[in-house]
Amino acid sequence: MSSIKLKVEFLGGLDAIFNHVREHKISLPYSGEPPKMSDLIRHLADNVMTDKKDHHIFIEDGSVRPGILVLINDTDWELEGEDEYELEAGDVLTFTSTLHGG
Amino acid sequence: MSSRPKKVVAPCELCHARKPVMKRPKTLQKLCKECFYHVFETEIHHTITSTQLFHRGERIAIGASGGKDSTVLAHILKTLNERYDYGLELVLLSIDEGIKGYRDDSLATVQRNKIQYDMPLEIVSYKDLYTWSMDEIVSCAGIRNSCTYCGVLRRQALDRGAAKLEIRHVVTGHNADDMAETVLMNLLRGDTARLEKSCAILTQSSGSPIKRSKPFKYTYEKEIVLYAHYKKLDYFSTECTYAPEAFRGTARTLLKSLEAIRPSCIVDIIHSGEHFVLREKKKRTAQYKNVKKTDEQEINADGSVSLSNGKKEFKDGNRCENCGYLSSNRICKACVLLAGLEASRAKVTIENDTTADGAAKLGKELEQLSF
């Protein structure tokens, strides 16, 4: 089992459900195939989220809930293959909620 | 940064040179940062000029909450005002609802914006205007209706703040997603009267000196968030401590799910909203019949009854008899809400005095009586 080191940011108020911490250093364990974005999202929901009750705030239908903006190294994840993106060591993943007031 | 072979990425669809960083929801175009800034700013400029939103020399109050939308709005209006020489005088206007742990923090952001954008800042508070802070209102009226109170009071507070500054035009950061959400909600509630008006970029009732407009009417929330992020704008983002009403929240979720499948649906809904036209009359009279209920305070101190009730036609420019604010009814909605609060404030003392179980109910009944 190896692992990959990543930086994850929760912005737009999303940090509230991740221990009120905006920047997380994540070591994502994996075996075999290099991990994908979907593996990270599952890991965040299962192991990093403070309270399982908040699951629905982050996840819908197995992926990030619509209305949460995802950036991979500051690029819109829609340009990077979304869930299918293959993670690399040192990647910065940003999750920003747009679901509330401005 | 990596040893993995780089994927060949098609360049930005506008400049055909730089690496794209985002996909526009409205057009699905893949753009680089610079081109994104350019189209984002230029579209808003076009919205402003094609609707003749401002005139030279106009003083504009920007309703500033410290959140993403109003922060980007302040930044954009300052940028465009300088770039295209609109000749506007821009002022930040903030409302302090009195919500500990939320508004106090976001107001600190507005204070920084004031310096960053070099604009004067005026803050008006619920407490000063109405003698009630939102925290006090919620402790009295419960959390369930907090958005109703807050919405009604904020509307007035912005007008009063503008009047205090002698400004006749307030701009707010309402974006395309907000507009579409409002259309959806009015549709789902059958509120056809509001539906017709819900997409106007500029609203003004004839009796009011204060106009309101939404320069971000066609601007997607996603792009506002990205713009703020890439430009590293200083904005505040924490959920209001009083959760949004369930209906609005659900409408928002629905909209976001639709957007995920068909990103253009947000402008499409706005387009639909703009083209709703009510059949003439009909609803109007029926609707204003209901108003009577709030008019029950019509008995005067000497026991006489005012007879102005006969025909209740909505006239733009009617004023609340209590506070002088614009209102379609004799007493404006804010005053009605506040009167209800005063009654339950009294209820609290009754409860303390008597410790009777039925005190709350009694208070409710007292509230219904009118003197």
From TrEMBL, chain A:
Residue list for modification 1-thioglycine: G102
Keyword annotations from UniProtKB, A to Z: Cytoplasm, Isopeptide bond, tRNA processing, Ubl conjugation pathway
Post-translational modification: C-terminal thiocarboxylation occurs in 2 steps, it is first acyl-adenylated (-COAMP) via the hesA/moeB/thiF part of UBA4, then thiocarboxylated (-COSH) via the rhodanese domain of UBA4.
Pathway membership: tRNA modification; 5-methoxycarbonylmethyl-2-thiouridine-tRNA biosynthesis
Keyword Transmembrane: no
GO molecular function, one term: protein tag activity
Domain of life: Eukaryota
GO annotations of cellular component type: cytosol
Gene Ontology biological-process annotations: cell budding; cellular response to oxidative stress; invasive growth in response to glucose limitation; protein urmylation; tRNA wobble position uridine thiolation
Signal peptide: none
Localization terms from the record: Cytoplasm
Cross-link (Glycyl lysine isopeptide (Gly-Lys) (interchain with K-? in acceptor proteins)): G102
InterPro entries linked to this entry: Beta-grasp_dom_sf (IPR012675), Mopterin_synth/thiamin_S_b (IPR016155), Urm1 (IPR015221)
CDD domains in the cross-refs: Ubl_Urm1
Function field: Acts as a sulfur carrier required for 2-thiolation of mcm(5)S(2)U at tRNA wobble positions of cytosolic tRNA(Lys), tRNA(Glu) and tRNA(Gln). Serves as sulfur donor in tRNA 2-thiolation reaction by being thiocarboxylated (-COSH) at its C-terminus by the MOCS3 homolog UBA4. The sulfur is then transferred to tRNA to form 2-thiolation of mcm(5)S(2)U. Prior mcm(5) tRNA modification by the elongator complex is required for 2-thiolation. Also acts as a ubiquitin-like protein (UBL) that is covalently conjugated via an isopeptide bond to lysine residues of target proteins such as AHP1.
Family membership: Belongs to the URM1 family.
Protein name: Ubiquitin-related modifier 1
Species of the source: Babjeviella inositovora NRRL Y-12698
UniProtKB/TrEMBL annotation, chain B:
Keyword RNA-binding in annotation: yes
Domain of life: Eukaryota
Cytoplasmic tRNA 2-thiolation protein 1 C-terminal domain residues: 318-349
Principal EC category: transferase
Pathway(s) this gene product operates in, as recorded in its UniProt entry: tRNA modification; 5-methoxycarbonylmethyl-2-thiouridine-tRNA biosynthesis
PANTHER family, sorted: ATPASES OF THE PP SUPERFAMILY-RELATED (PTHR11807), CYTOPLASMIC TRNA 2-THIOLATION PROTEIN 1 (PTHR11807:SF12)
Functional note: Plays a central role in 2-thiolation of mcm(5)S(2)U at tRNA wobble positions of tRNA(Lys), tRNA(Glu) and tRNA(Gln). Directly binds tRNAs and probably acts by catalyzing adenylation of tRNAs, an intermediate required for 2-thiolation. It is unclear whether it acts as a sulfurtransferase that transfers sulfur from thiocarboxylated URM1 onto the uridine of tRNAs at wobble position. Prior mcm(5) tRNA modification by the elongator complex is required for 2-thiolation. May also be involved in protein urmylation.
Stated name of the protein: Cytoplasmic tRNA 2-thiolation protein 1
Biological classification of the source: Eukaryota, Fungi, Dikarya, Ascomycota, Saccharomycotina
